[in-house]
């Protein structure tokens, strides 16, 4: 079956630091890959996505590249802000059923 | 107005009580989902529905039931609540052929 593995957290960074959050997946076929973000007290919202190998998703300064050879979709940002403090979820999409398989999520805290 | 709404937002109940969580969406999508979120476990799928007459179990459906009253409404019921059902519950929706799910704000349920 499909699965998503995220690096263990939590992660605490200083403002303007570089961020990398690792995500690897196991899937049959050609899934879509997503990063969702959950700000405190809110639901999940889509941060970025990639639908095929070598695609790069980007939004709000965050980027992730769909790497089929390493089955990875790592999230990066060059300079984090306090407002980026949230929980980040990597997810894999089963196109046929529109079902998502989520990683466990990682909490990012950015201090001033 | 929010595209996906959930009621109630917070609920405290006692063991053995029946409780219903409601979800409505205005996006016109056919597919709706119920997840629960537990710390360190990410989101896990409880039930999903492709239309009013098509309801499917997810990975953790035991102890839960659902009702799809209309295209826009999808309710989750706990027939006899137990403490390990204490969690944050999310409803989501997506269109046919898409993996991009839109989430409600969540319901925080506590079972004493």
What does the model show?
The complex is a heterodimer of chains A (112) and B (112). Chain A is mostly beta strands and 112 residues long. Chain A has no helices and 12 strands. Chain A has strands spanning 3-6, 11-14, 19-21, 23-26, 32-38, 44-50, 56-59, 62-65, 75-77, 86-94, 99-102, 106-111. The radius of gyration of chain A is 13 Å and the shape is globular. The model of chain A has no long low-confidence stretch (mean pLDDT 93). In chain B, strands 2, 4, 5, 6, 9, 10 and 11 form a 7-stranded mixed sheet that branches. Chain B has a 4-stranded antiparallel sheet with strand order 1-3-8-7, with no helix packed on it. Chain B has no helices and 11 strands. Chain B starts with a strand and ends with a strand. Chain B has strands spanning 4-7, 10-13, 19-25, 31-38, 42-51, 54-57, 65-70, 73-78, 87-94, 102-103, 107-111. Chain B has 112 residues and is an all-beta fold. At the A-B interface, β5, β6, β10 and β11 of A face β5, β9 and β10 of B.
Helicity range of the residues of chain B? under 10%
Give the number of helices of chain B: 0
Question: What is the gyration radius of chain A calculated from CA atoms?
Answer: 13 Å
Tell me the strand percentage band of chain A: over 45%
Task: Give the low-confidence spans of chain A.
Answer: none
Oligomer: heterodimer
Structural class of chain B: mainly beta
The Cα radius of gyration of chain B reads 13 Å
Q: Which structural category do the helix and sheet elements of chain A fall into?
A: mainly beta
What is the first-to-last residue Cα distance of chain A? 41 Å
Q: Measure the end-to-end span of chain B.
A: 33 Å
Strand residues, percent of chain B = over 45%
Number of strands of chain B: 11
How many helices of chain A?
Answer: 0
**Biggest β-sheet of chain B: count, sense, barrel?**
7 strands, mixed
Order of helices and strands of chain A: EEEEEEEEEEEE
Q: Report the biggest beta sheet of chain A as strand number plus sense, adding barrel if it closes.
A: 6 strands, mixed
Principal-axes shape call of chain B: globular
């Amino acid at each position: 079956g499909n699965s998503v593995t995220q690096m263990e957290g939590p992660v605490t960074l200083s403002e303007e630091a570089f961020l990398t959050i690792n995500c690897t997946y196991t899937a049959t076929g050609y899934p879509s890959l997503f990063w969702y973000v959950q700000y405190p007290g809110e639901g999940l919202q889509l941060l970025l996505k990639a639908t095929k190998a070598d695609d790069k998703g980007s939004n709000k300064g965050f980027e992730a590249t769909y790497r089929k050879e390493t089955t990875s979709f790592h999230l990066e940002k060059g300079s984090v802000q306090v407002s980026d403090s949230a929980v980040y979820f990597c997810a894999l999409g089963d196109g046929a059923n529109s079902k998502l398989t989520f990683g466990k999520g990682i909490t990012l805290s950015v201090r001033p | 107005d929010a595209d996906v709404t959930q009621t109630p937002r917070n609920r405290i109940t006692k063991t053995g009580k029946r409780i219903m969580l409601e979800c409505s969406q205005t996006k016109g999508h056919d597919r709706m989902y119920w997840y629960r979120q537990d710390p360190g476990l990410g989101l896990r799928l409880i039930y999903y529905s492709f239309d009013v007459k098509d309801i499917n179990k997810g990975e953790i459906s035991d102890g839960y039931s659902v009702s799809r009253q209309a295209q826009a409404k999808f309710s989750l019921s706990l027939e006899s609540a137990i403490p390990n059902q204490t969690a944050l519950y999310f409803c989501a929706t997506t269109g046919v052929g898409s993996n991009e799910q839109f989430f409600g704000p969540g319901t925080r349920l506590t079972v004493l």
